[in-house]
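A further point concerns the way the authors explain their paired sequence and structure data. Since the whole study asks how a given chain folds, the encoding of that fold should be made plain. A single example would do more here than another paragraph of explanation. An entry of this sort, consisting of the sequence and the corresponding backbone structure tokens, reads as follows:

_____
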Amino acid sequence: MDLSPNNYTEVCKNCNGTYKKLNDLYNKLQRLNRHGDESGHSAHLCIDVEDAMNITRKLWSRTFNCSVPCSDTVPVIAVSSFILFLPVVFYLSSFLHSKQKKRILILPKRIQSNASLVNIQEKYS
């Protein structure tokens, strides 16, 4: 197979099934590593297996550009933006639907301050 940059789509088409099987096997081995098998013994992956899978995944996604975009991206962005705009919608609707009261200053009917009382007393003395 010719591996020129123009022919990378052929690599994606021809090797997609094999890559998925390899990736599934590796994920199964990782789960066994974390949780152990039925007998309770955990299987440890060798560093060369992990390294080989990391290189394979890097080649698959970066070099050959065969990675499929995650299908969860669109719903996550939609829900996140909805939750982000909820406070804006709440405060805007609260402002628009509330009755805006004009503040009216109520002047006191008694003498306003002691200073003005002193001024009045000084005038009459």
Observations:
- The helical segments are 8-35, 47-63, 73-97, 114-124.
- Residues 8-35 form the longest helix (28 residues).
